[in-house]
Design brief:
Helix content is 44%, strand content 17%. Strand 13 and strand 14 form a beta hairpin. Helix 4 runs antiparallel to helix 5 and helix 11 packs antiparallel against helix 12. It is flat and about 90 Å long. The chain starts with 11 loop residues before the first strand and ends with a helix. Keywords: ATP-binding, Coiled coil, Cytoplasm, Cytoskeleton, Microtubule, Motor protein, Nucleotide-binding. This is Kinesin-like protein. It comes from Anopheles atroparvus (European mosquito).
């Protein structure tokens, strides 16, 4: 496929219709989606609503054809200096993760492998070819060297977690910041250098194993978080490492929208469902605002509420920014999923109207330059930190050489005072950390108690009108069970409260 095609200035939308599952066929569900002419990107839902998209793939289309026809050309735009985003959206169980390939396991491509592993193979194939050409041009000083990095994060319960970090779950929590150009980035996110597609596969599998998943009535392995796997290509132009072009490719696997009534979610699953749908609602509002802005010829001041959710902030550059964006809308054709399928198709139809402003990343001029794009900021800061560390080391050595003869009793006394102050601050820090841990444990105990109470109360309230007086539990029995849960909560909390603090343990140790 020719990669020099015109860069699209609107969001490209591809609809993929999954086959009916064995369970759906056994229950007699029929397909409600019809493609009048399969080569055309047109479909009809419920025999009355017609939609036209960039591409439409029926149940018989395999993974390779989806990649070759719709994905490969824009993936290779990454090596031309463009930022690229590929989003998978749809209800839970519609085939988003399967299509993206986030759950890829293995080291070789197979027929059912998704687009992400295929894209990694293509990227390294072309990078290696360019590297060979760069070595031939190195003698003239015009060669370009490439370095590839990857990162993997998830957005769970509206919190950002680093999936490639070696730390524990709570230490992986990250924030979101804006750079000088108004773009959004995640400080502290792990970016790992990878030299082969196989190495990138291993990190993909490692991160996918750390993401939040849980079974529901609609999906045996439902993803309970949005994930973003990013491939970063840094091209160093010529022999000067200070001229760097950075381009990024984002694979966004959105958590599936779901109805609590269908998924039968309760407790933690219900809270996850609420947060997922809240983020997708904010994303839908952003898409509607951008679509209305693109269609309007008079109103040029449409407000786009990116700040309503962390998900929309992370996708700010992909929707209405300078990225080449492809949305993969995955739908279920089964009649019992009709409302969710229509919602997804309408959602995708609005996204077609969004206009982006794709542009190539420009090389950063030098560290002393006063202006830089958001994509160059990390490279600039890395070089700045290296330079400042070197200056700091040299300054420390000079000060140490000048002050060494003057060090005396006063200097030693000052050192002892600083050492004592450091010990005091360390003790205060330990106490604060222990208090924070106690608060988290208390919250966990309360949440567990709520989880045990909720089924008792909700079941009693929801089933009372369908049960006869003989079948329903008596108020005394329900009261007894609730009291047992509360007694267990009080016992666990009292045990936590009586646990000695670090200061008390230190006092006992001295005695």
């Amino acid at each position: 496929m020719d990669t020099s095609t015109t860069v699209p200035d609107t969001v490209q939308v591809v609809v993929r219709i999954r086959p009916l599952s064995e369970r759906e066929l056994a229950k007699g569900y029929e397909s409600v989606i019809v493609q009048p002419n399969p080569p055309e990107p047109r479909l009809i839902a419920r025999n009355q609503e017609e939609f036209t998209f960039t591409e439409v793939f029926g149940p018989e289309v395999d993974q390779l054809e989806v990649y070759e026809r719709s994905v490969r050309a824009i993936v290779l735009k990454l090596l031309e200096g463009f930022n690229v985003s590929i989003l998978a959206y749809g209800q839970t169980g519609s085939g988003k993760t399967y299509t993206i390939g986030t759950s890829f396991a293995g080291s070789r491509l197979k027929i059912n492998v998704g687009i992400l592993p295929r894209a990694l193979v293509d990227i390294f194939t072309h990078v290696n070819a360019k590297q060979r050409g760069a070595r031939e041009e190195a003698a003239t000083g015009n060669g370009t060297r490439y370095r590839v990095f990857c990162s993997f994060m998830e957005l769970y319960q509206d919190h950002v977690y680093d999936l490639l970090s070696h730390r524990n779950r709570y230490e992986r929590l990250l924030g979101i910041r804006e750079d000088v150009g108004g773009g959004v980035f995640v400080p502290g996110l792990t970016e790992l250098a990878v030299s082969t597609a196989e190495e990138a596969f291993r990190w993909l599998q490692h991160g996918a194993g750390c993401r939040a998943t849980a079974p529901t009535s609609m999906n045996k392995e439902s993803n309970r978080s949005h994930t973003i796997f990013t491939v970063i290509v840094r091209a160093c132009l010529g022999t000067d490492d200070e001229r760097v072009t950075i381009s990024k490719l984002h694979f966004v696997d959105l958590a599936g929208s779901e109805r609590a009534k269908k998924s039968r979610a309760s407790g933690d699953r219900l809270r996850e469902c609420i947060q997922i749908n809240k983020g997708l609602l904010a994303l839908g509002n952003v898409i509607s605002a951008l679509a209305n802005h693109a269609k309007s010829t008079r109103n040029n001041t449409t407000y786009v509420s990116y700040r309503d959710s962390k998900l929309t902030r992370l996708l700010q550059n992909s929707l209405g920014g300078n990225s080449i964006t492809l949305m993969l809308a995955c739908v279920s054709p089964a009649s019992y999923n009709l409302e969710e399928t229509l919602s997804t198709l309408r959602y995708a139809d609005r996204a077609l109207a969004i206009r982006n402003k794709p542009s190539k990343s420009t090389p950063s001029a030098s560290l002393d330059s006063g202006s830089s794009s958001g994509s160059d900021e990390l490279e600039r800061l890395t070089k700045t930190v290296s330079r400042l560390r070197l200056e700091n080391t040299q300054l420390r050595r000079r000060i140490s050489a000048e002050l060494r003869p003057a060090v005396g009793v006063a200097g030693m006394a000052g050192g002892k005072h600083l050492l004592a102050q450091n010990r005091l601050l360390h003790g205060q820090l330990q106490a604060s950390l222990e208090e924070s841990t106690r608060i988290e444990l208390r919250a966990s105990i309360a949440e567990n108690a709520l989880g045990r109470l909720e089924p008792l109360v909700c079941t009693e309230l929801s089933d009372s009108e369908f049960q006869t007086p003989d079948e329903s539990e008596s108020p005394e029995e329900l009261r007894r069970k609730c009291l047992n849960v509360l007694l267990r909560y009080r016992t666990e909390y009292e045990a936590l409260r009586q646990r000695p603090t670090a200061q008390q343990r230190s006092t006992l140790h001295k005695i």
